[in-house]
Amino acid sequence: MRETSNLQRKVFAIFGSFTLLLCLVFFAICMMVAYVIEDHLLDNLLVGEVRYLEQQAKQAKTIPEPRLPYLTLYTESKVIPTELRTALPSHAEKAEWFSDTEHHFHLRRVHFPGNDSAVLVAEVSELLTVTRQSSQLLWLFAGACILTLLLALYCAYRISRKTIAPVVTLAKAVQQQRNCDSQISLPYNNEQDEIGYLASTLQDTLNQLKLTLRRETEFTRDTSHELRTGLTILKSTLALSQNREMTKAEKNELLETVAGMEKTVKTLLALARSESLQSEDIPLRALLEERLLVQHQVIVQKQFHVDLKLGHKVRVLANRHLVSLLVDNLISNALQHASNPKLIITYKGNTLFFENATDNQLDLETSLLPGQKREGSDGIGQGLFLAKRICEALNWTIAVKCRKNIYQCALSFTQ
User: 280 Cβ partners below 8 Å, 6+ apart?
Assistant: First the structure.
């Protein structure tokens, strides 16, 4: 986005154009009023002089002379010039005439007793103040117009700072965070006005869209990780069944695998849709024993030893299936990656610890991120990332550390 907003330019252009139009209209009105006033003033001057001459003629029985030097009275004894006589037709009482020599005349008919042909002529060129000062008035108008334009642009700037600038700032903030995966925080989202409503609504909408996209991406990753083992079992068992009949144990294993996959898909869909999962009071040791029995065959095959160091009274309020999925992940990680076939599960201070020996060098800062695998792993690096997501859904916290070749994963929760 350009530094100068198109919206601000439009505001400046609108204010400037409107101000210029007002100046032109005001100047035209002022000039018209000035000319009208000037014309009426001269006309009233002639009317007063005509009245005086007519009164004097009645009283003195003679034709008087005008009192002002720029007034000339034309009678039968003093013939009016042809141009002036033409400018005042016989049926007209008054007229104006501009000569070729820039002289301006006002003419008024005077009615004397027995003589209606008298005409009072005023050469008013020196009295035309507005006309003589037109150049100065034009400069005055230009200066006033410039000052008014500057004032209007300043007002437009101040208005844009109060009204338009927040919109421009919001647009820039949205553009800057277009490719950002984290939750965004837009300016003005706490303001109690229309801008604040727009910012908060836009922020909530964008965050919901980003959250939806992230859940969709994570659902794809989680599905590929969680269903791969079950699909492998199904494929292997079905491949063997082509050469021989499946045993009852194999059929039961298939049914359990399908049931487990169904539960997993439901859980992942719930996570992806951010559904409200029902919580219940779970005896933690009983749940751990149940999940160990699910993987009993693998534990026996690998001669793995699991040591549960927690009492039967430890309970937790959470969604059973999410906790089961979380425990299954951590037990599977230990079975696959432990350098010594032993897993110790302990409980201390509302924290559940999973500990096993390891020979691998771990990057603890990235181990909870998607796609992170230990050396020699045949997985796709989603186990701990899924565990982290489940913990977030349960409002638990997960932390990993490694000391003296002992890998430890800690799950903290509130009772």
Answer: 317, 318, 319, 320
